[in-house]
Structures are given as structure tokens and as C-alpha cells.
Write the C-alpha cells for this entry.
Amino acid sequence: MDTDQPDHRLTIVGGGVMGTNIAALAIGHGIPVALADISEAALARARGSIAQKVRHAQLMGALPPDRSLGDLVTSTSLRDVAEATAVIEAVTERTETKAKVLAEVSAIIGPGTTLISNTSCIPIDELAGSVMRGDELVGVHFMNPSYLITMVEVIRGPRTSDDTMDAVIALLTSLGRQALVVRDAPGFVINRLLHPLINSAAMLVDEGVASAEVVDGLLEGCLGHSTGPLRTADLIGLDNLVDSLNVLYERRGDESCRPCELLLRKVREGNLGRKAGRGFYDYGGVAS
Amino acid sequence: MTAEQTTIPVTAEAVEDALLSFLAERVKASVAPDQDLFGSGLVSSMFAMQLVVHLEESYDIAIIGPELKLDNFRTVQAMTRLVLRLRDASG
């Protein structure tokens, strides 16, 4: 076994799709994880999901063969985050929710603990106003599934310090991730580009111009996208997508980011994508 | 596991036929027993994990350790061999 790994101990707050993705990534790389969520039921679901995701990573040969799996502990108490070397916030993509959780975590952890938001859209500097040490907050936009996609988007807020950048890059290196660093802005780079594309793709389906299969087929077959925008939407989760589009629309006023009626309807009907077994595509009613 | 599933005879032919039917329904395409499902782009990495769970639940096997690798799921024939190997090992 590899004994040269730095002594990272990761706490993740939020056991949804992204929290469990990141937990599986860390555990698979031999890094112990403490996961916090609001209820025992949510934690039970998260433990099952993490176990499946670690297996998925093993299946795909995405884990280093020379490290044993990291331990997982779960808790409904944020007090259990205090001993971590880094804390990743992965709660719902709503500014007030993220700000509240980050403020609570920040009040518990000691100086020198890297505080990471897994926001996909909210400017880091908006969140930095809620924490005790804004220089220790940094954004890391992990992709889904985090344990299969090596590249991550790292967002340096205007207050983020050099030490924090060094610490987050060291953590990501231990996780086998490659970072590209961008400056702070709503949606950063990836979702400033991707979300209006998905929204427009959904509008085309709603207008009857083309089916979801045809829209995706054209972008995959003609433009070389590995996954079309609507398959990607199902992977993101349509509720998360609507939340992120709202973040972009409220901050930039860009009409292409106003969530279209078809997206809103699917969310109202509970057709949230892969995690619900149905979104733009039918996954046989099986959440995945 | 349902009572109906437990009555499926676990022969190579039966496993192969059941897998071909399952894939035809799920990927909406007809596949050959020796076709590379991943190389042909028919099956995504996300669907690969669903294949693992499907085989475990259908044939009461645990696919773990060194058997949990993509090559065992690359073709219907490879999956059939895996099922029979693990059934033999547990029997």
C-alpha cells in the first residue's frame, strides 16, 4: 500500500448526488471521509449510494490500485467536521442555503482548514461574506460523476489566499484530479456556457423542432460532444439545473438563462433526471 | 429477487438469451453476443454499473474484487462466462 499520501481528512456536508460523488472519489483514493447531512434517512441513502459509486469507480478502473479504501463515517451533527483538514460544502445550489451552511461550518473549524464550496454557479465572493475567514474559501466545481472525470474547475475568489490555493491543489492532486483555475463570476466558465445551451436544447424540444434524441444526436454526431445537452441535463438533475439557471438569470439578466417551461414542468412532475429514473429520457424508472 | 426470476435456468444459452433481450430493451438496439458494447458506443459507463447490479440481482451472485472489471462486461459472452463462473464458485 502507498504510505506516502499526505494526511488528508475530508468532511463533506450534503449527501446528495455531488456529496456522494466526492465521497466515493475520496474514499477510493484512500482518504477518510466524514459525511454530514440533516437526517439519518438521508445519511442511510448516502451510504448506499457511496458504496455503489466506489464499486462503479472500481469497475471503470478509475481508482489507484496501490491504496486501500478510506473510512467513511456519517453524522447529522456539523460538530463532527472540526477535525478535518478540508471541508467541502455540497448542499443545494441556493445562495441562502450554501451561505448558512458555510457560516455554520466556518464557526466550528479551526484556522488553516481549507473550506471548499462545490457550487456550480454562485460567485465565491458572495459566499465568502458569510464565513469567518474568506481567504480560506475556494470553489471547486467537481463534475458528475466526480470519480470518473479527472478535470475540475477551480474558482479563485478575490479573497482566496495563495496558501488556500496551494492547499486545494494539493488535495486535488491526492484525489487524482487535474485543476484548471478560473476567476470568480456567475456560472464561472463551464456553466456560463453549458447551462444556456441545455436551456435552449430543452426549448427546441418544447417547441417540437426536434426530439431529445435528435437534439443530442446532432450535438454528439456533428459537434463531437461525448454526451448531448439533454443527457447531460438528466445527469446534473433538472431541479439543480433550474436552481443554477436562476442563479445565472438573476445575476446577469441573460434571457437564455431563464428556465424554460419544459424544464419547470419536468421538475414539477418529479421527472428530475437519472436520480429519479426519468427526465428527458426514461431510465426504466431506475434511479442511477 | 422475484419467484419468477429464480426459475430461470442458469445455462450459458439461457443467460445469453436473457442478456440479449435485456440489452435490446434497454439500449433500443439489437446486439451480437460477441459485440464490444463499450467500443461500439452502445453502452455508457453509467449503464455498465446497471449491468453489474442487474446480473447480481438476476443470478444471486456478488461481483466483487478482481471480477469487478470492465472486461467482464464488454460483451454478452463475457458476462455469460462471468455469471456461470460465479454461480459455479458459490455452488
User: Anything to note?
Assistant: The first strand of chain A starts at residue 10 and ends at 13. The longest helix of chain A spans residues 40-59. Chain A has two domains: 10-183, 190-276.
